[in-house]
Amino acid sequence: MTLRGQNIYLRALEPEDLEFIYTIENDESVWEVSHTQTPYSRFLIRQYLENAHQDIYEAKQLRLAICKSKTAEAIGLIDLFDFDPQNSRAGIGILIHQVQDRHKGVGAEALQLLMDYAFTHLQLHQLYANIAEDNQPSLQLFTKFGFRKIGVKKQWNKIGSQFKDEVLFQIINDK
């Protein structure tokens, strides 16, 4: 599956993504965003990639690589998770790995592509996102796309020795 935008495209994960995913999953600087707490081995990531062929109805998740259109370089990941077809909803998360690729519209383009896919092809009624209270770029991005703050989970995530609030955002597709 490939979803094409103007500057990026989203594609299914491939076995060749092993090193890219290994790098992201073991980068402690993004563990707070990805809720990772321990390093992943190449063996575990290889197993994950071998099962990436499962469709969203089996896996309850869809993880796509965000790639630059000009170079085909993978620069991030975007997920639908906790897919619930009965209630027609899923969570959505996004990570642009390198700082130099952020704040260039890549996240917005990826989010728009996945929202369109979720609402049109999966016919979801709603999407939600869990965002750390101090992650201003993500808070602004999801707000820009019509997500509304519906709650705050107080002291939800322990980061180092302190607890941080997490904001719950939701968008309902009324079409």
TrEMBL record:
Pfam families: Acetyltransf_3. PROSITE patterns: GNAT (PS51186). Keywords: Transferase. Residues 8-174 form the N-acetyltransferase domain. One of its GO terms (molecular function) is acyltransferase activity, transferring groups other than amino-acyl groups. InterPro entries: Acyl_CoA_acyltransferase (IPR016181), GNAT_dom (IPR000182). Gene3D superfamilies: 3.40.630.30. This is GNAT family N-acetyltransferase. It comes from Flavobacterium sediminis. The lineage of its organism: Bacteria, Pseudomonadati, Bacteroidota, Flavobacteriia, Flavobacteriales.
